[in-house]
Design brief:
The complex is a heterodimer of chains A (255) and B (260). With 255 residues, chain A is mainly alpha-helical. Chain A is built from eleven helices and four strands, in the order E-H-E-E-H-H-H-H-H-H-H-H-E-H-H. Chain A is 69% helix and 7% strand. Chain B folds into two domains: 3-43; 58-252, Oxidoreductase, molybdopterin-binding domain (Sulfite Oxidase, Chain A, domain 2, Alpha-Beta Complex), CATH 3.90.420. The chains are: A mainly alpha (255), B alpha+beta (260).
């Protein structure tokens, strides 16, 4: 028998999906800006491993000579990025959702188990509540990163009026590097996120749109048998619950 | 209990799943479509009509102007650009453009600064008259809109000193200052508060030497609270007005304010 289990509140779903196009536009317009002074690369011992970005990449995405346009988009959508982010944080605080999201003391150890499990190195399933330990860390880190983008962004946008922010961010140069690195972080997060969501499957994905998951409950026949055996309604509920839990937990998936 | 509620109760789990799936996915795709439509509207929206500003889409220009109003609230003469010791100033000061300072027969010896005080009221100043005012030096991080920056050393007259010495207080009550090169090919507009900021200079020296032509000799603007695009080289005329004066890069899609 199927059971509906509420998972993601509307505000969580809303802010999640609103953030997706906004962040896409911010990254794209950010690249239009970055192109005008594209000085970053990964160089170790005189050997350049990656140059941000190769010419074919710029050409492919039609990035060159669009600095003014990039700035205009960036400084419009920064408002939506910020508002959506604050709305999300405010909601998680007021609703108590933060309890499921913020890493706990044990999360860092458990996250390691999640990683080993996901890489098929370890067979035992790590504890999974609404979010597992790795998710807690990832989903909190991404919010901290978002806040970091806002702060470093302001530090390079108004380095005179917000000189103290620029100072906190380690200066104009460092703030720009962090602002850039955080963006690479989003792209990395996005890739892992999509892979994990794909592996977790339809039920999990749907819950981020519809808000609920569908769980399989033990069939009523089993429950009736339990009644006959124990002859107690309280016990019946108890056993049924336990059976449901047994079936639910292993089925609960990552993401 | 209403009939509707009774009906709802009669739905099986399977039906409720179907119904909620349908509603949420329909909403998701409808909103997704609306977002895509909104983006297409913005991306394909017409450029603003060419005026003091030009070259960007109408809604984006409106957003730039609104954003300027918000961030101007944070402007203060007490917010100073960070300064550095002279030893940190670069010796190879970057020349990013020659617009407006093409050589075409410009004679620095016969140059005079034209200050338009009002209609028919013009002040002509030689470089000696300007140099006779108190000299102010600054070593700061010059920032280009492209993203690069350089610690540079400039010296000249504070614009606010210039205003009081030549009795331009009345003009300085207006909202904007306009500056143009002698040939009129490069021009900028500055909000008055940025012009009167204590670190804004009319500079005639760089690294303790008289300005080279490529750096804007005989007199150039150094306005540390703005991106480099506003730091006009080779000032020919200075005007005052309550409307935005024309601005070279604002006509090419950049933010008019461009403040730091």
């Amino acid at each position: 028998m199927k059971v509906i289990k509420e998972k993601h509140p509307l505000v969580m779903r809303w802010t999640h999906w609103v953030n997706f196009p906004i962040l896409t536009i911010m990254i794209w317009s950010g690249m239009l800006i970055y192109w005008a002074n594209d000085v970053y690369s990964v160089t170790l011992f005189g050997h350049t491993f990656v140059r941000f970005f190769p010419d074919w990449f710029y050409k492919l995405l039609h990035i060159p000579y669009r600095l003014a346009e990039g700035m205009a988009y960036h400084f419009l959508f920064m408002w939506f990025f910020t508002l959506n982010g604050f709305f999300y944080i405010l909601y998680t605080i007021l609703s108590g959702e933060w309890r499921d999201l913020v890493p706990q003391r044990k999360s860092f150890k458990e996250a390691w188990l999640v990683l080993l499990h996901d890489l098929h190195i370890r067979k035992t399933t790590p504890p999974q509540n609404k979010y597992n330990a790795a998710q807690r860390i990832a989903y909190t880190a991404i919010i901290v990163m978002g806040f970091g983008s806002l702060v470093t962004g302001l530090a390079i946008y108004k380095p005179v009026q917000f000189y103290w922010l620029t100072w906190i961010c380690g200066g104009y140069h460092f703030a720009r590097i962090v602002h850039f690195a955080l963006t690479l972080g989003y792209v990395l997060f996005f890739i892992i996120h999509v892979v994990q969501v794909t592996i977790a499957g339809w039920n999990n994905f749907r819950s981020v749109i519809s808000g609920f998951e569908v769980l399989e409950k033990p069939s009523p026949v089993v429950v009736e048998m339990a009644v006959e055996e124990t002859n107690s309604t309280i016990d019946q509920d108890h056993i049924a619950d336990q059976k449901m839990d047994d079936q639910i937990h292993p089925a609960k998936n990552i993401q | 209990m209403s009939i509707k509620k009774k009906e709802k109760k009669l739905l099986t789990v399977e039906q409720r799943i179907k119904r909620r799936n349908f509603i949420s996915f329909a909403t998701f795709f409808a909103l997704g479509g609306a977002v895509l439509g909104g983006w297409k509207w913005l991306y394909n929206s017409l450029d603003e009509t060419t005026g003091i500003t030009a070259g960007t889409r109408k809604p984006l220009r409106r957003a730039l102007n609104k954003t300027e109003l918000f961030f101007r609230n944070f402007f203060s003469n007490n917010h100073l650009v960070r300064t550095y010791p002279k030893s940190m100033a670069t010796k190879k000061v970057r020349v990013n453009a020659h617009i407006g300072i093409e050589n075409e027969g410009f004679k620095p010896e016969s140059w005079q600064l034209v200050v338009v005080k009002g209609t028919g009221d013009i002040l002509n100043l030689t470089i000696e008259e300007i140099k006779s005012l108190p000299k102010t030096e600054i070593v700061y991080d010059f920032k280009c809109v492209e993203g690069w920056d350089q610690i540079q050393h400039w010296a000249g007259v504070k614009f606010v000193d210039f205003v009081s010495h030549f009795n331009l207080e009345q003009q300085a009550k207006m909202q904007y200052v306009g500056m143009e090169t002698p040939n009129g090919k490069y021009y900028i507009g500055l909000d008055m508060e940025s012009a009167l900021h204590p670190q804004t200079l009319l500079a005639y020296e760089m690294n303790d030497q008289p300005l080279a032509l490529e750096h804007g000799a005989p007199l150039r603007l150094i306005v540390p609270v703005k991106y480099g695009i506003k730091n006009l080289k080779r000032i020919g005329t200075i005007t005052f007005s309550n409307q935005r004066p024309r601005d070279y890069w604002a006509e090419r899609g950049y933010d008019y304010y461009s403040g730091l």
